[in-house]
Specification:
With 243 residues, the protein is α+β, with helices and mostly antiparallel strands. It contains three helices and nine strands; from the N terminus they run H-E-E-E-E-E-E-H-E-E-E-H.
Length: 243
Amino acid sequence: MRSILLSLLGGVALCSAQIASAPGTHGIAYITGAVGDAAVVTDNPIGDVYTALLPQSNKTSIRGYVSASSATGTGVTFEVSFVGFPDLSRGPFMYHIHDQPIPSDGNCSGAKAHLDPYIRGEKPPCDPSQPQTCQVGDLSGKHGNITTSDYSTTYLDLYASTKPGIGAFFGNRSIVVHTANTTRLTCANFTLTANNAVNGTNTTVPSGGYSTPVPAPFTGSASTRATTLVTVFFGVAVAALLA
Protein backbone atom coordinates (compact mmCIF):
# COMPACT_ATOMS: atom_id res chain seq x y z
CA MET A 1 0.00 0.00 0.00
CA ARG A 2 2.82 2.39 0.89
CA SER A 3 4.47 1.88 -2.51
CA ILE A 4 1.16 2.52 -4.29
CA LEU A 5 0.60 5.71 -2.33
CA LEU A 6 4.11 6.94 -3.02
CA SER A 7 3.61 6.34 -6.73
CA LEU A 8 0.35 8.25 -6.72
CA LEU A 9 1.82 11.15 -4.80
CA GLY A 10 4.67 11.19 -7.31
CA GLY A 11 2.05 11.66 -9.99
CA VAL A 12 0.66 14.60 -8.05
CA ALA A 13 4.07 16.23 -8.00
CA LEU A 14 4.48 15.63 -11.71
CA CYS A 15 1.15 17.20 -12.54
CA SER A 16 1.37 20.26 -10.30
CA ALA A 17 1.44 22.53 -13.33
CA GLN A 18 5.17 22.93 -13.91
CA ILE A 19 8.37 21.22 -12.85
CA ALA A 20 11.51 23.33 -12.36
CA SER A 21 14.69 21.98 -13.89
CA ALA A 22 18.31 23.09 -14.11
CA PRO A 23 18.95 26.62 -15.32
CA GLY A 24 19.08 26.94 -19.08
CA THR A 25 21.84 28.62 -21.01
CA HIS A 26 20.06 31.99 -20.71
CA GLY A 27 19.99 31.84 -16.90
CA ILE A 28 16.29 30.89 -16.82
CA ALA A 29 15.12 27.83 -14.92
CA TYR A 30 13.38 26.01 -17.72
CA ILE A 31 10.35 23.88 -16.94
CA THR A 32 8.25 21.27 -18.60
CA GLY A 33 4.48 21.27 -19.05
CA ALA A 34 2.12 19.31 -16.82
CA VAL A 35 1.76 16.76 -19.62
CA GLY A 36 5.39 16.82 -20.74
CA ASP A 37 7.57 18.70 -23.18
CA ALA A 38 6.20 19.72 -26.55
CA ALA A 39 6.50 17.05 -29.25
CA VAL A 40 8.09 17.64 -32.63
CA VAL A 41 5.30 17.50 -35.23
CA THR A 42 6.34 15.37 -38.21
CA ASP A 43 3.09 14.95 -40.14
CA ASN A 44 2.03 18.49 -41.00
CA PRO A 45 0.17 18.81 -44.33
CA ILE A 46 2.79 19.82 -46.88
CA GLY A 47 2.01 23.08 -48.65
CA ASP A 48 -0.96 24.30 -46.61
CA VAL A 49 -0.37 27.98 -45.83
CA TYR A 50 -2.01 29.82 -42.93
CA THR A 51 -1.76 33.60 -42.72
CA ALA A 52 -2.72 36.13 -40.04
CA LEU A 53 -3.02 39.62 -41.54
CA LEU A 54 -3.09 42.48 -39.04
CA PRO A 55 -6.07 44.80 -39.54
CA GLN A 56 -5.99 48.37 -40.83
CA SER A 57 -6.90 50.06 -37.56
CA ASN A 58 -6.87 53.69 -36.40
CA LYS A 59 -6.01 52.43 -32.90
CA THR A 60 -2.47 51.41 -33.83
CA SER A 61 0.14 52.07 -36.49
CA ILE A 62 1.34 48.47 -36.45
CA ARG A 63 0.75 46.56 -39.68
CA GLY A 64 1.97 43.27 -41.08
CA TYR A 65 1.37 39.56 -41.16
CA VAL A 66 2.48 36.15 -39.98
CA SER A 67 2.46 33.39 -42.60
CA ALA A 68 3.19 29.75 -41.87
CA SER A 69 3.51 26.51 -43.82
CA SER A 70 5.38 23.21 -43.80
CA ALA A 71 7.60 22.26 -46.73
CA THR A 72 8.58 18.81 -45.45
CA GLY A 73 5.91 17.88 -42.90
CA THR A 74 8.33 18.32 -39.99
CA GLY A 75 7.74 21.58 -38.17
CA VAL A 76 6.32 24.82 -39.57
CA THR A 77 8.22 27.66 -41.23
CA PHE A 78 6.99 31.05 -40.03
CA GLU A 79 7.46 34.21 -42.06
CA VAL A 80 6.94 37.26 -39.83
CA SER A 81 6.75 40.83 -41.12
CA PHE A 82 5.66 43.78 -38.96
CA VAL A 83 6.09 47.53 -39.44
CA GLY A 84 5.11 50.65 -37.52
CA PHE A 85 5.95 49.98 -33.88
CA PRO A 86 5.54 53.52 -32.57
CA ASP A 87 7.27 53.74 -29.18
CA LEU A 88 10.22 51.42 -28.66
CA SER A 89 10.34 52.31 -24.96
CA ARG A 90 7.27 50.05 -24.56
CA GLY A 91 9.24 47.09 -25.85
CA PRO A 92 10.67 44.66 -26.35
CA PHE A 93 7.46 43.70 -28.10
CA MET A 94 6.21 40.13 -28.12
CA TYR A 95 3.86 38.13 -30.29
CA HIS A 96 2.16 34.84 -29.59
CA ILE A 97 -0.34 32.38 -31.00
CA HIS A 98 -3.38 32.53 -28.76
CA ASP A 99 -5.83 29.79 -27.89
CA GLN A 100 -8.96 31.35 -29.36
CA PRO A 101 -9.79 33.35 -32.51
CA ILE A 102 -10.45 37.08 -32.41
CA PRO A 103 -14.20 37.77 -32.14
CA SER A 104 -16.02 39.74 -34.80
CA ASP A 105 -15.69 42.98 -32.80
CA GLY A 106 -11.89 42.79 -33.11
CA ASN A 107 -11.27 42.77 -29.34
CA CYS A 108 -7.87 41.14 -28.81
CA SER A 109 -8.87 40.07 -25.29
CA GLY A 110 -11.19 37.53 -26.88
CA ALA A 111 -8.15 35.49 -27.91
CA LYS A 112 -7.78 34.34 -24.29
CA ALA A 113 -4.40 32.88 -23.23
CA HIS A 114 -1.45 31.60 -25.25
CA LEU A 115 -1.74 28.33 -27.15
CA ASP A 116 -0.48 25.92 -24.50
CA PRO A 117 -1.58 22.30 -25.09
CA TYR A 118 1.11 20.95 -22.75
CA ILE A 119 -0.08 23.18 -19.87
CA ARG A 120 3.28 24.84 -19.35
CA GLY A 121 2.13 28.28 -18.24
CA GLU A 122 3.77 31.65 -18.90
CA LYS A 123 6.21 31.76 -15.95
CA PRO A 124 9.11 31.46 -15.74
CA PRO A 125 9.79 32.94 -19.18
CA CYS A 126 10.59 30.67 -22.10
CA ASP A 127 14.23 29.65 -22.47
CA PRO A 128 14.91 29.68 -26.24
CA SER A 129 17.71 27.16 -25.76
CA GLN A 130 15.05 24.66 -24.64
CA PRO A 131 12.15 25.40 -27.05
CA GLN A 132 10.44 22.08 -26.32
CA THR A 133 9.81 23.34 -22.76
CA CYS A 134 8.14 26.57 -23.92
CA GLN A 135 4.48 27.16 -24.69
CA VAL A 136 3.73 26.10 -28.24
CA GLY A 137 2.26 29.54 -28.95
CA ASP A 138 5.15 31.56 -27.50
CA LEU A 139 6.75 32.39 -30.85
CA SER A 140 8.71 35.44 -29.73
CA GLY A 141 9.88 33.64 -26.60
CA LYS A 142 11.36 30.85 -28.72
CA HIS A 143 12.53 32.90 -31.70
CA GLY A 144 13.14 36.45 -30.48
CA ASN A 145 11.28 39.56 -29.33
CA ILE A 146 10.79 42.70 -31.43
CA THR A 147 13.16 45.58 -30.66
CA THR A 148 12.90 47.72 -33.81
CA SER A 149 10.16 49.78 -35.47
CA ASP A 150 10.11 47.44 -38.46
CA TYR A 151 10.72 43.75 -37.99
CA SER A 152 10.92 40.71 -40.24
CA THR A 153 12.24 37.19 -39.73
CA THR A 154 11.82 33.63 -40.93
CA TYR A 155 12.33 30.53 -38.82
CA LEU A 156 11.37 26.88 -38.41
CA ASP A 157 9.30 25.99 -35.36
CA LEU A 158 9.19 22.24 -34.71
CA TYR A 159 6.28 22.27 -32.26
CA ALA A 160 3.48 24.29 -33.89
CA SER A 161 1.27 22.48 -36.39
CA THR A 162 -0.85 22.97 -39.50
CA LYS A 163 -2.54 19.62 -38.90
CA PRO A 164 -6.16 20.09 -37.77
CA GLY A 165 -7.34 18.13 -34.79
CA ILE A 166 -4.24 18.22 -32.57
CA GLY A 167 -3.50 20.61 -29.72
CA ALA A 168 -0.63 22.35 -31.50
CA PHE A 169 -2.80 23.23 -34.53
CA PHE A 170 -3.10 27.01 -34.91
CA GLY A 171 -5.03 27.38 -38.17
CA ASN A 172 -8.26 28.33 -36.39
CA ARG A 173 -6.58 30.46 -33.72
CA SER A 174 -5.00 33.92 -33.66
CA ILE A 175 -1.83 35.97 -33.36
CA VAL A 176 -1.58 38.77 -30.77
CA VAL A 177 1.12 41.46 -30.53
CA HIS A 178 1.99 42.75 -27.03
CA THR A 179 4.06 45.41 -25.31
CA ALA A 180 6.65 44.33 -22.74
CA ASN A 181 4.02 44.61 -19.99
CA THR A 182 1.67 42.31 -22.01
CA THR A 183 -0.73 45.05 -23.16
CA ARG A 184 -2.36 43.78 -26.35
CA LEU A 185 -1.73 46.15 -29.26
CA THR A 186 -3.14 44.38 -32.31
CA CYS A 187 -4.25 40.93 -33.38
CA ALA A 188 -5.52 38.83 -36.26
CA ASN A 189 -6.90 35.38 -37.01
CA PHE A 190 -5.10 32.75 -39.00
CA THR A 191 -6.89 31.68 -42.16
CA LEU A 192 -6.03 29.06 -44.76
CA THR A 193 -4.63 31.12 -47.65
CA ALA A 194 -3.16 28.35 -49.80
CA ASN A 195 -3.93 24.67 -49.97
CA ASN A 196 -1.33 22.24 -51.30
CA ALA A 197 0.79 25.19 -52.41
CA VAL A 198 3.68 22.81 -53.23
CA ASN A 199 1.71 21.88 -56.35
CA GLY A 200 0.71 25.48 -57.00
CA THR A 201 -3.03 24.94 -56.56
CA ASN A 202 -5.86 26.79 -54.89
CA THR A 203 -3.85 29.82 -53.77
CA THR A 204 -5.72 32.77 -52.25
CA VAL A 205 -4.79 36.05 -50.63
CA PRO A 206 -6.03 36.97 -47.12
CA SER A 207 -8.51 39.83 -47.01
CA GLY A 208 -8.30 40.58 -43.30
CA GLY A 209 -11.25 40.50 -40.94
CA TYR A 210 -11.89 38.11 -38.10
CA SER A 211 -14.16 35.36 -39.42
CA THR A 212 -12.68 31.94 -38.69
CA PRO A 213 -13.80 28.52 -37.43
CA VAL A 214 -13.81 28.40 -33.64
CA PRO A 215 -11.58 25.81 -31.91
CA ALA A 216 -12.64 23.87 -28.84
CA PRO A 217 -13.79 26.29 -26.11
CA PHE A 218 -11.09 27.71 -23.87
CA THR A 219 -11.56 26.16 -20.44
CA GLY A 220 -9.39 28.38 -18.29
CA SER A 221 -5.77 29.20 -17.62
CA ALA A 222 -2.96 26.69 -17.68
CA SER A 223 -2.90 26.73 -13.90
CA THR A 224 -6.62 25.89 -13.78
CA ARG A 225 -6.23 22.87 -16.01
CA ALA A 226 -3.14 21.69 -14.13
CA THR A 227 -5.01 22.03 -10.83
CA THR A 228 -7.70 19.74 -12.20
CA LEU A 229 -5.08 17.06 -12.90
CA VAL A 230 -3.65 17.43 -9.40
CA THR A 231 -7.13 17.06 -7.90
CA VAL A 232 -7.70 13.81 -9.76
CA PHE A 233 -4.41 12.30 -8.57
CA PHE A 234 -5.01 13.46 -5.01
CA GLY A 235 -8.46 11.85 -5.00
CA VAL A 236 -6.99 8.56 -6.16
CA ALA A 237 -4.32 8.76 -3.45
CA VAL A 238 -6.93 9.28 -0.73
CA ALA A 239 -9.00 6.39 -2.04
CA ALA A 240 -5.92 4.14 -1.83
CA LEU A 241 -5.40 5.15 1.81
CA LEU A 242 -8.98 4.30 2.69
CA ALA A 243 -9.01 0.96 0.88
